[in-house]
């Protein structure tokens, strides 16, 4: 009993049921063809359509159609056709698209035969060869002429829709484009005078669910000759088997909802649909409608399918060209903008300036110009989850962070284009997000912004460039009022609902609020160019930094060589024996090595004072070491100039060496305390040794003392005082401000984990050697070559005939050969005997079951039936090459 249902929850349930309908496994086909399925080897019949016997003209004495289930395929099809089918199944694309085999006479009737493999079953489609009333004789020339003469996507769509209607005789042809939100809009149309126009109308995303869209990427042409034709059920040998996947089948059955409640509601009796792709994505559809049953010939449909592919390629090229000119214009504006900003900026040339700070500063100065270029109302630049700078009307910081951390967007921002755009923030339903830090996980407030987007620039930290647009009310024309649709309960329960057959497709105008101006293809092209330009500016900064690093490296190398020379000479003067000289020199050069390593890790950054002291005193800073904790470091975070590091490390090394040999670190109870603080604009460092042995004034002042007292004052204008008190050595240093950079955080010293390399192991039988493939079909040979190389063969040679194979045998040594029995005008038996004489293992391959009888002395040879796959080949290799 039917009843109208208006509940929103029931409406949503009905929508979900329609969208989730498994249209690829409906269990039936359309009446204009027949279908049978077999196992992978095309031997045993596993499925037949109920109309197969009638279509083939089988008589009663030949048995009911169900009697063929589980039987050999030869009971229904001639052997030469089976051979062609097996050869076709060896093609590399047989699992991704149908292969038209040819026209064959079966039981006295001509049929067009197609085949494909769905990963589990081999599906054979049979369509009667009808009297051709329409021939596509002029379609291809006119289509090619149009594609070559028009240079805009709008003109292309309009011209092709007109040409399709004139050529096919359908009453209405529409070009339907998918929009960003999933809905679609009719962007071009050609129709007869008595047909209703849908031009400019928008259809909801649920009209063509995701599953149906994915099928158009697999089979670009879909035909429904008559919506009132009775569906033909599929009969299975194993009733418990999963429904047969008909995704690639052209005669796949149609959804009852689509035919009876959708097409009928549009006044359509038959339809044909051509997919329009842009790259690997579904851009839209050509929808052909007719008010009477209509089925074009298979030849005509094949030509239309090819035209659709050619149009998609031309549309992709046209859109790419349009994008190129848009981006070229945007690039010119951006180049002028960045050039002007650089010329007017008083940028410091200080070598040690951090690169990303310069980059951030540049971005902040061009935001007004970029906002105008993007026709946006506001921009924000986010660095490490913090707003670095903003311009114009932007939401509060927590809202911006909620946007860029939204998990679905995070997946999209790392996709091919890496650009996220949103026309309505209100539809995101973002109130709180788990992806945000707890401190900013707050309700989302979009302010004046209605929509926006962002992209990611990965440079050291994550840099997000976020753009916003304010609300813009707009008028959308829908094909039918979505608020006035009816539902009909199909039974007494409320578990299943469908749209009413009386759905209206009359134009309904809706005023849309809470949305920004849509992000068009033009906008996306400009955003892509902006992203590319910003990346270019980053590269320019990187190049600048590289030049600085090279100059800094040259400078440091010269300084290091000079220091080493000085250390060698001074050490030789202060040591009395060769052994002492070598020992002290090694330690001092090792200290310079530590300085070099520290500077190498820091790049243009200045190293931390605490890190430098830690390197020299590490064994005495932790209780984990045998000597216990004997050193203390106390002071604020401060960085030291890179030019100062080698000298300073030598100074600290002399203090530590003296303490270890003679001072506080020479006994377990001794301690070294190093304190530092800001004094008179610079930094004072205090070295104190306590609880050590009694200290005596040195009788001779060597290189170490001179280094401690003179290096810092002489080279850097600082101060140094060294005191040998009886209670312990004391040293005071003062460093001027130009050697320092006071910071609030102390970067951690990086430790690198070792990475274990995992080596792949290859089957020893397949690791080396060459293989010979004798096959007269180039495509099949290419596929088998790829398979064999993938399995590990270093060399795979192919020969189309016995003569060429014999030539290759004289030139190479093969571990195993694969011989197709049936070659053009000959068999491979003679070659098989030659291989036996040479004691080279081989296997036969064939697409036939019984056309050729193997000679008695060859019957023990392995025989593989086509199509071949990796599993068959591996099994054969393991058996033949096991010794």
UniProtKB/TrEMBL annotation:
Matches recorded under SUPFAM superfamilies: CheY-like, GAF domain-like, PYP-like sensor domain (PAS domain)
Q: Which reaction does it catalyse?
A: ATP + protein L-histidine = ADP + protein N-phospho-L-histidine
**Which stretches are annotated as coiled coil?**
none
Response regulatory domain spans which residues?
Answer: 770-881
User: Which Enzyme Commission number(s) are listed?
Assistant: 2.7.13.3
- Any single Pfam family the record assigns to this protein: Response_reg
Molecular function, one GO term: ATP binding
Listed name of the protein? histidine kinase
